Amino acid sequence: MAFWNRRRSIDTMLAPLDGPRMKATLSWPHLLALGVGAIVGTGILTLIGVGAGLAGPAVMISFALAGLVCACAALAYAELATVMPAAGSAYTYSYAVLGEMVAWIVGWSLILEYSLVVSAVAVGWSGYAVGFLEGLGMALPTALAAGPHVEGGLVNLPAVFIIAVVTGLLLLGTRESATLNAVLVVIKILALVAFVALALPAFDASHFTPFMPNGFGAPNLPFLEQFTGVPVAQTGVMAAAAIIFFAFYGFDAISTAAEETKKPERDLAIGIVGSMLICTALYLVVAAAAIGARPVASFAESPEPLALILREMGQGTAAQWIAASAVIALPTVLLAFLYGQSRIFLGMARDGLLPRGLARISSRGVPALVTVFTAVVVGALAGGMRLDELASLANAGTLAAFAAVGVCLIVLRLRDPGRKRLFKAPLWWLVGGVTIVGCVVFFLSLRPSTQWYFLLWNVIGLVIYFGWSAWNSRLAKGEETAA
User: What parts of the sequence cross the membrane (predicted)?
Assistant: First the structure.
């Protein structure tokens, strides 16, 4: 079978592995905490300022649009995760439904997504950590607190530090890290609830006027600007939604935990759908409270917008507490995505698309080698890149993966309607369609440079695939029967 058409059999995929497998130690509370921990993080604590700067008060619409697309993607993930409860997430689903080459592109995009998410969150954490230390009179020199994009900056040492700490935690074991994650998630949610409670008394409806100062925006077509000289929009509701999209995803990390879940047929759907519902409601309330409390211009450029809003309200102690909560709890996002990244690597290595030595499992039941390798890569990125650059490029990889999941949902429903589905997405044709169209529109709303970098990343990936992976996969060597 040609490499562009060969697919993994779902039934073969679910058969017992012929090598060591990870321990099934997680239940739905762990998965719900993993999802909320991954979703609630830099997006609402930091990128709310970036989004408000692009869209003004209409950032509320940006949150709603991003949440709608992610909710549909979550439903698609929930169905596919219960049909194929195996490590690998969208990569695994694409391998079984769309074929090996598409699966490689999706997996390669996921590597981009997870690596840059970890780096971006580490940079966001660093912003709060530096502000918190300054509040205690312990200011770090600029050379060690920011990357070279900032005047006087050399390396973002706090960002590198927190990645190293979380990596060490993951190496201890899945259940141990998941239990601590659940505790930190509670701290993070309480901090956001406290912010809303403090900000609402200062609510001023005039801050929502003008509501949409930069317009709705239109898709960015890099070819249009380059070849016609017509400038494309860099602001507006859609530009903000394309960035704020970063604030919603994270539920896909739950699907990478399928192999380590005790009852994947039940717990995966609870974790994925439940975490999205909780976080969407929380985001809209926090965004409304933030804009109502202070004019958008006052916090749009801040690396710690929620803490800044409280300080400007005269709530210095509360601002310090919010910053401390972010410093303590933002690592839950790092934990979730470093966890997911290592499982993506693991799935691709098991399939032979990456060197199989990466699939080694330690005595604690974790893929130690790929976890450490991932940490080194993301630490290097976090040490030198800006938050908005990292978030924008991470979104491109995520949008590609989510669109593929939408396609997988529709194709599998049409190809194999009789297959047992323990969770069924309602109105599957609409859920899949909104996921696909929404992801395409958001991708076209990213800055043109991000679109070009994403295309370049995938060109590099295809060179690797045609040069090595296509000839060394388990299907290529006949080690597994194709579907």
Answer: 31-52, 58-78, 154-173, 180-203, 223-248, 268-293, 318-340, 366-387, 393-414, 426-446, 452-471
